[in-house]
Amino acid sequence: MKSRIEITDGKLKAAFVVSRSIKGTKLGNEIFQALADYGLPVLETSITQRISYPTSASLSVTVLDNKIDENAASEIHRLFKEIKEKFL
Length: 88
What we know:
Keywords: Plasmid. The chain is mainly alpha-helical.
């Protein structure tokens, strides 16, 4: 990825998003440091493992549509906001 960013003179933007993290676990916290060692940005917003994500997919909707899990919807809104702030 870093090579591709260099080839495009920095026009290509990339960052890691931690998904399916398990909130409050040691591994969940350590993954951020492990990804930082790759030299690409790691977004602060992470998506936690929730049953509402596969449930929404099985209903052909998103967590933003189905109102089953407001915390999941909030994660997606925070991720969208962070991406806009950093890349747009």
